[in-house]
Every structure is written in structure tokens, then in C-alpha cells.
Automatic annotation (TrEMBL), chain A:
Consists of at least two heavy chains and a number of intermediate and light chains. Interacts with BICD2. Interacts with CFAP45 and CFAP52. Interacts with CFAP53. WD repeats lie at residues 531-564. Residues 9-21, 186-197 have a biased composition (Polar residues). Belongs to the dynein intermediate chain family. Its main location: cytoplasm. One of its GO terms (biological process) is cilium movement. The keyword RNA-binding does not apply. It is found in: Cytoplasm, Cytoskeleton, Cilium axoneme. Residues 39-49 have a biased composition (Acidic residues). Residues 135-151, 168-185 have a biased composition (Basic and acidic residues). Coiled coil: none annotated. This is Dynein axonemal intermediate chain 1. Keywords: Cell projection, Cytoplasm, Cytoskeleton, Dynein, Microtubule, Motor protein, Repeat, WD repeat. It comes from Hucho hucho.
UniProtKB/TrEMBL annotation, chain B:
Belongs to the GAMAD family. Coiled coil: none annotated. Residues 4-93 form the Roadblock/LAMTOR2 domain. Pfam families: Robl_LC7. Signal peptide: none annotated. SUPFAM superfamilies: Roadblock/LC7 domain. InterPro entries: Roadblock/LAMTOR2_dom. This is Dynein light chain roadblock-type 2. It comes from Hucho hucho.
């Protein structure tokens, strides 16, 4: 109790002190102090008068509250909010086009702002000031201290005493530092202790974790125009495949087949790529080796032809040979219509005693050292024909009487069709085959003629070769006695035939007896006409490319004859002094043709220039013992290929004289086209006919 | 396969061909008739050149493609033929010098 009393008195003293200090202050303070006084009084009173009971003195203007209201507890929350700050500031948002309240309102309340005037210590002004202020430094400190005193009661009226003084000191320090003077800390003279302490610093522990880095791969690519194009193409192809798959019902077999194909592809990936490229390289290498020949082929025109009047020459170009075909003779030649540099060579033997194997070989002008395709056959080939529209279908006739069809696209070396004894193969060598137009069912078909006297039509129906005898060549009047007295007609041996270019059903057959029969596909037993052409077997018979009436024939009786099919006697006859192996019309002129003989010469004729003699007679092969067997003109280029009995094929270029087009009078346009050629021929024929008519 | 081998052999034995190199799509020579260092050198250098040449041709017209490339110098001629798009080129060097056959 005495302790309490003391505190009370101390407080009252302090309170009175406060009062005395605040006396000159406002009256409102007085009221507050009075209240304090009274509180103090009650407190002191508590000690003395507690037993006596409380005597509350209510001020007059105090609020009257009920008991319940008095007991009500008011919670006061001390927050750091600024009571003067607005609670709902709204701003217009252009994004949402409406007024939106701001999420947080600034709660800062500024109580006191003092704008100081700081100067950099090194600036001129500062130096000047320092100079001025250099003397009254001490005065300043005192002044600041004095200035502090009125501040402290204002700022720290409610603080406790110790804190007040300490606060005052600190503020003095801070004011000094604000003034920009670096001086020693003026510490409290009476009661100052500088004591530093350090809190416990928790030991730092670094903890980190690292995940597995995601797998990275370097990727680099270029995006060129062509790469984009390639990607587009791929996508297109995929789309098309998907469409096909959607349409077609997937068959299991096909899938398996496809899988096999895929496997094969991946295995032989490297090699197949190499194949194509190796071919290109081989051709390049050949081009280098035979560079001069290639240049000649393309550009050389024999200038000396101008001085030679009408004669022409043949310039030898490439020579094609194949090692394995050395002992065989060239028995057939055919140019490919679609690929102008590709030609087929059939190899076999004409010699009856030397029958053995044969070969079908394809060469390209771009590579004269090695054939493009090689098909070995069991029997010698005697004739071949390449389909006009499908350059991969080749019909072949053999010495043993079979006919076969090869598909160049296939990988196998076997023909896709082959006639057998059951399916009507010939019993004698097949001398000529020729493709026809597709029949009404769109099946390919071809004809063959053989020594057994039959002209047979073969149709490729799905997987089979179906044959139809078109005509049987019978010798007129000759009848032999067969067994049991039956009279059998003797068959003539057909050795060559040719179909008319325009009239589909009309064709000519040359026989071993030397006769040429004009036949029709419609009539199977009768000939339309027979010409007594030659004394020996007719080796070749060919219709003129332009003139529809004219055909040419050659024979081993050393002659070449030109006919008009309406007239029974030949228009022209040429004697070539040696057995003529083959004759061919040129594709560019109706009056030019060439013939090969067994003495190794090529005879070229142009009827519009010289009706009696060849304008070019040239030995083509080096050794005189080689016989030339076949000749073919290239449909586009001015070259001919000549085959001989040693298995070589020589290509020759025709000199300009041999390729003459009719000269027109100046001023007139050069008429081009087949009509000109026909007219040319007609002119010649009419010349011949007139003397005949006049003679007759 | 055998056909390809034969073709390669024929090329190699052709008159004037000095060497052939076959290179795969990554630029690694898989077959060569020359010594190792030369092969590697040729393979590396020509691969880039062919790629560039091909890129040029195709940039001008994407439907076009490089068929082959001849490099004629005073001493030799190098012939390069690229494989399918993406694979490496085929090079044949030719004529009185090393013949490099670079194939891809």
C-alpha cells in the first residue's frame, strides 16, 4: 500500500508537472488534465476510501447510457490505416468501359514535411557557406539543441521520461547529420554507453535441387523454296494414298506384298540409289570417251556433199557390241517409237546347223559400250517388234517356232507370255512378228508369219496368249499325197510380211518361193493377189510410209523391186550384185530407201534424184567377210543402224545428199507433210505408167 | 545388286577413269578405289559443292533437279552425280587424273 501510494504520488507529481507545463496551453488540455487529476484522485482515493465506497462525480454533459450499454464492450482495433484516406476511389477503365474501383488506396498520411536545402559539399555554394559557417560552428550545435527542446514536447508529449531524453538525443544527432556536417557523434555527457550487440545469426544453409534436364537435341535445317515444295508433294502423295485406301478395300495379300516390298527397299536402299546414279555416270563416262562421235551425230554435216552432185555418204558413228553375243548374228533390229535413242537387237543365227541360244538386247545411243537390257533366250531370235504405243512391250519370234512377249518393265528375264506347243506355236521358224492395234476388247495383239505357212494372230488375254490362224499360205495347185491317200495342200513358207499403214486389213506376205501375196485379214483362205516377185525367197517386203500403193521387196536373188500393188509387174528393179539381206524405206522421204547386202555394203537410193542407180554405195563393215543382215532407219534422227552376222550393230549418219527434200521454186512456200511425198512418188509412177500405156 | 556392282566395275575399268568413290547420304565414303586420305578429302569437299549446286538448281525451279555436275580443270575432270534428293552425290573423277567416283 505504501508502494502504491508512492507511485500514485509520483504520478500525480508528474501529472502536476505536466499540468504546469501545459498551463499556458489550450483550455481543452485543461479539461483533459482535470480528468486525469480526477482519475488520479480516484486512484489515490481507492487506497484510502476503498472501504468507504465510491463517489462518482458525473460531469453534466456526460452521456447517459443504460446498464446494458455500459457493459457493452467496445473493441478498438489499432490499424495502420489512414482514417482520412478515402475508401473507395473509382477510376474509369477504358478497357471495360466502366468505372472500376481501385484495388488499393494509398494509406500514407503525411504528418510533417520539411523541405531541406541540401548542398553538395564540394559545390561552390557549399564551400562559400562553409567558409561563412566555419566560425560559428559551436553556435550551431547549441542552436540545434535549443531548437530541439520545443520540438520534443510537441512530438513526444506522451512518451515516458527516459525515452524522451534518449529520443531527443537521437533526434539531435539526426538533425546534425541532415545539416551535412560530419562530426563526431555528440554523445550524452551524463548517461551514454555505446554497446553493440549482435543477435545470433542463424547459420545459413544452402539447399538446392535440380531436376533432370529435359533431353535436348540439336536441330538444324534449311527452309528453301524447294524444300517447301518437296514437303507439299509428300503431303499430296499421302493424301492421295489415303484416298485410295479409303476407296479400295484393303486386301490382306496386298498388304503382305507391300510389307515385303518395304523390307526389300530398306535393305537395298543404298544399292538401288546407286543403280540409277551409276547409270548416269556410265553414260557420262561414255560421252567423254566418244565425245567426237556424239558431236558428229548431232552437228556434223558433210560439207563435201555440195561438190559431189548427187551422191552422198554414210558417216560411221557408234558401234554396238556385246561380248556374249559375239558368235551370234543380228537377226532383227527395231527402233523404239517413244524413246528415240533406244533400239532392240535380236540375236540368233540364220545357219541351220548352228542353232543354239539367242539373245534380246536393247541399246541406247547414249551408252554404246553396254546394253541397257539383256534377255538371254534358249532359242535364236529371228524377228522382233516393239509396240508403237507401249514402249515396254516387245514381241519376239524364235527359230523354234515360239513367239513370246517381253515386258521391259519387269525385273525378270523371262517373257511374260510365251507360246507353247499346246497353244498353237509354229512348227517352223517364225520369220516376222508385227504388233497390231488393240482389238475391240482392248487386248493387245500381234501377228506372226512362219515357214509352216501360217499367218497367226496372237492376242494377249489376261495371262494367256490366244492364237487365231488368219491365213494359211498354200501353194497354188500343188498338192501332195499324204498318208492314207489324203491329199494335203503343200504349205508355202512365209518369210516376211508387212501391214498396210492406212488400210488395216491389208497386208503382204513374202514367201520362200519368191511370191508375194496380198492378203486381207478377213479372208482366211484366199489371197487378194499374188505377185511373182523373185526367184528366191523374199527376204523383206515393206509398204511405203507415204504412198499408199507402193511397196518394196528384196530377195536373195540379188534384186530389189518396187511395186504398185495394183499392177502385177514391178515398177522398178535394182540389181545389187549380191544377196540382199534387208531393205527399208526412209521415214522422211517417200523416194529414199536403203538396202544391205551380204558383201557388207549399204546401198542408198533416192528415186527422185536417180532412178537407176544408188546414190550411195558404201561398205560399212571392216572385214569383207561380214555379211550385213538388217537395216533400220531411225524415225527422228538422220541415222541408220545396220546389223551384221557377227553380232555388231553399226550406226551411220546419212549425209545431206541422202536426205534431200524437193526444191521448190523461189517465192513459193515449201509444202511440208506427207502429201508432198505422195505427190513425189506419184509423179515418178506416172512417168513409168505413161510409157507403159504408150507402149501398150 | 549384282548389276550395280558390274556397272561400277565397268566404269572403273573404262579408259581414262582413274578412281571412283561411292559416298553415302551422310558423306561417308563407302567404297573407293583410291587411298584413304584422298578419298576423305574429295568426299568432304565435293559433298558440300554438290549440295550447293543442287540447292541452286532447285531454288530456281523446285520441280527441277540436278542430274550431274562436271568440274573440268586443267589436269582432270571430276564428275559428280547426286543420288535421290537428300542423299549424297555420286562423283566420278576422270581423265588422266584421279578418278573419284563419289556416290551417295
Amino acid at each position: 500500500m505504501p508502494v502504491a501510494h508512492k507511485t500514485g504520488t509520483v504520478k500525480s507529481k508528474q501529472g502536476s508537472n505536466a499540468q504546469s507545463q501545459k498551463a499556458p496551453a489550450a483550455k481543452t488540455v485543461k479539461a483533459a488534465s482535470k480528468k486525469k487529476d480526477e482519475e488520479d484522485g480516484t486512484e489515490t482515493g481507492e487506497g484510502d476510501e476503498w472501504m468507504q465506497g465510491k463517489t462518482l462525480i458525473k460531469p453534466l454533459d456526460q452521456l447517459d447510457l443504460t446498464e446494458a450499454e455500459l457493459k457493452e464492450e467496445f473493441t478498438r482495433i489499432l490499424t495502420a490505416n489512414n482514417p482520412h484516406a478515402p475508401q473507395n476511389i473509382v477510376r474509369y477503365s477504358f478497357k471495360e468501359r466502366s468505372y472500376k474501383p481501385i484495388s488499393s488506396v494509398d494509406q500514407l498520411a503525411v504528418h510533417f514535411v520539411l523541405e531541406g536545402n541540401l548542398l553538395h559539399q564540394d559545390s561552390d555554394e557549399a564551400r562559400r557557406q562553409r567558409a561563412k559557417q566555419g566560425l560559428p560552428e559551436e553556435k550551431d550545435t547549441v542552436e540545434t539543441a535549443v531548437a530541439e527542446k520545443p520540438e520534443t514536447p510537441a512530438a513526444g508529449g506522451e512518451d515516458a521520461g527516459d525515452v524522451e531524453e534518449g529520443g531527443g538525443e537521437e533526434r539531435a544527432d539526426s538533425v546534425e547529420s541532415k545539416a551535412g556536417k560530419k562530426e563526431q557523434k555528440i554523445t550524452n555527457q551524463f548517461n551514454f554507453s555505446e554497446r553493440a550487440s549482435q543477435t545470433l545469426n542463424n547459420p545459413l544453409r544452402e539447399r538446392g535441387c535440380q531436376t533432370e534436364p529435359p533431353p535436348r537435341a540439336n536441330f538444324s535445317a534449311t527452309a528453301n523454296q524447294w524444300e517447301i515444295y518437296d514437303v507439299y508433294l509428300e503431303v499430296l502423295q499421302k493424301q492421295e494414298k489415303n484416298k485410295e485406301k479409303a476407296k479400295a478395300v484393303p486386301k490382306k495379300d496386298d498388304d503382305k506384298g507391300k510389307k515385303k516390298m518395304m523390307l526389300v527397299e530398306t535393305q537395298s536402299d543404298d544399292i538401288t540409289k546407286v543403280a540409277k546414279v551409276a547409270k548416269i555416270i556410265e553414260r557420262m563416262v561414255n560421252q567423254n570417251t566418244f565425245d567426237d562421235i556424239a558431236q558428229d551425230f548431232k552437228y556434223f554435216e558433210d560439207a563435201s556433199d555440195e561438190y559431189r552432185e548427187q551422191e552422198g555418204t554414210l558417216l560411221p558413228l557408234w558401234k554396238f557390241q556385246y561380248d556374249k553375243a559375239k558368235r551370234l548374228s543380228v537377226t532383227a533390229l527395231c527402233w523404239n517409237e517413244s524413246y528415240k535413242d533406244l533400239f532392240a537387237v535380236g540375236l540368233g543365227s540364220y545357219d541351220f546347223t548352228k542353232q543354239g541360244r539367242g539373245m534380246l538386247v536393247f541399246y541406247s545411243l547414249k551408252n554404246s559400250t553396254f546394253p541397257e537390257y539383256i534377255y538371254p533366250t534358249t532359242s535364236g531370235i529371228l524377228c522382233l517388234d516393239i509396240h508403237k504405243h507401249l514402249p515396254y512391250l516387245v514381241a519376239v519370234g524364235f527359230y523354234d517356232g515360239c513367239v513370246a512377249v517381253y515386258n521391259l518393265k519387269e525385273e525378270t528375264l523371262q517373257p511374260i507370255y510365251k507360246s507353247t506347243a499346246k497353244s498353237g506355236k509354229h512348227t517352223d521358224p517364225v520369220w516376222q512378228v508385227k504388233w497390231q492395234k488393240d482389238d475391240m476388247d482392248n487386248n493387245h495383239n500381234f501377228f506372226s508369219v512362219s515357214s509352216d505357212g501360217r499367218v497367226v494372230s496372237w492376242t494377249l488375254v489376261k495371262n494367256e496368249l490366244v492364237f487365231t490362224d488368219i491365213i494359211k499360205l498354200s501353194l497354188e495347185g500343188a498338192v501332195s499325197e499324204g498318208p492314207e491317200g489324203v491329199q494335203l495342200p503343200i504349205m508355202a513358207c512365209g518369210t516376211s510380211f508387212d501391214f498396210h499403214k492406212q488400210i488395216d486389213y491389208l497386208f503382204l506376205v513374202g514367201t520362200e518361193e519368191g511370191k508375194i501375196h496380198k492378203c486381207s485379214k478377213a479372208y482366211s483362205s484366199q489371197f487378194l493377189e499374188t505377185y511373182n516377185a523373185h526367184n528366191m525367197a523374199v527376204d523383206a517386203v515393206k509398204w511405203n510410209h507415204f504412198h499408199t500403193k507402193v511397196f518394196i521387196s528384196c530377195s536373195s536373188d540379188w534384186t530389189v523391186k518396187i511395186w504398185d500393188h495394183t499392177i502385177k509387174t514391178p515398177m522398178f528393179t535394182f540389181d545389187l550384185n549380191a544377196s540382199v539381206g534387208d531393205v527399208a524405206w526412209s521415214p522422211y522421204s517417200s523416194t529414199v530407201f536403203a538396202a544391205v547386202t551380204t558383201d557388207g555394203k549399204v546401198h542408198t537410193f533416192d528415186l527422185s534424184i536417180n532412178k537407176y542407180e544408188a546414190i550411195c554405195q558404201q561398205p560399212v563393215v571392216a572385214k569383207k567377210k561380214t555379211k550385213l543382215t538388217h537395216i533400220e532407219f531411225n524415225p527422228v534422227y538422220p541415222i541408220i543402224i545396220v546389223g551384221d552376222d557377227r553380232g555388231y550393230v553399226t550406226s551411220l549418219k546419212l549425209s545431206p545428199n541422202l536426205r534431200k527434200k524437193p526444191k521448190e521454186k523461189k517465192g513459193q512456200e515449201l509444202p511440208k507433210g506427207p502429201e508432198v511425198e505422195i505427190a513425189k512418188m506419184e509423179k515418178l509412177l506416172s512417168l513409168l505408167r505413161e510409157p507403159e500405156n504408150s507402149n501398150a | 545388286m549384282a548389276e550395280v556392282e558390274e556397272t561400277l566395275k565397268r566404269i572403273q575399268t573404262h579408259k581414262g577413269v582413274i578412281g571412283t568413290i561411292v559416298v553415302n547420304a551422310e558423306g561417308i565414303p563407302i567404297r573407293t578405289t583410291l587411298d584413304n586420305s584422298t578419298t576423305v578429302q574429295y568426299a568432304g569437299l565435293l559433298h558440300q559443292l554438290t549440295m550447293k549446286a543442287r540447292s541452286t538448281v532447285r531454288d530456281i525451279d523446285p520441280q527441277n533437279d540436278l542430274t550431274f555436275l562436271r568440274i573440268r580443270s586443267k589436269k582432270h575432270e571430276i564428275m559428280v552425280a547426286p543420288g535421290r534428293s537428300g542423299s549424297s552425290p555420286l562423283v566420278v573423277q576422270w581423265h588422266q587424273s584421279t578418278c573419284v567416283f563419289f556416290l551417295g
